[in-house]
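haha ok so turns out i had the wrong file open the whole time. this is the CORRECT one, sorry everyone. sequence first:
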Amino acid sequence: MAISVTGLDELRMLSGRDLGVSDWLEVTQARVNTFADATDDHQWIHVDPERAKLGPFGGPIAHGYLTLSLMIPLFEELLDIQGVTMSINYGMEKVRFPSPVLVGSKVRLQAYVTSVEDVKGNGVQMNMNFTIEIDGSEKPACVAQVIYRHYA
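then structure:
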């Protein structure tokens, strides 16, 4: 269940808080194919299951950027923000993909708020550590320092 906050003052109180983990989400071949169509990245390791079986991972894998983009819906499971006029993804630092996500695997997001700082324009900047975990794997699929800005 998502943590719910209203307004910038409650966002500021999240500094140093572990937001927990999302539910598991299965990464299907249909999702990988849709992402390939959207990005024109049809590399065989993603979209050709038969050929990918013979590849280095034993099957097709999700695009790294698909894994990264799953942070958006998974993060919405962790934090519900009300009482702001606008929220934007301001950027990321040190994005890494330590382990591939095999099609059929389940992933989830773990999020930790490292800091919340005031920014110009009556807003706050949330700096967070995001980790996309793979069910049954010791190594994460993706780790990133994520920056969001929220304005009153």
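The helical segments are 7-12, 29-39, 44-47, 49-53, 64-69, 71-76.
again sry for the mixup
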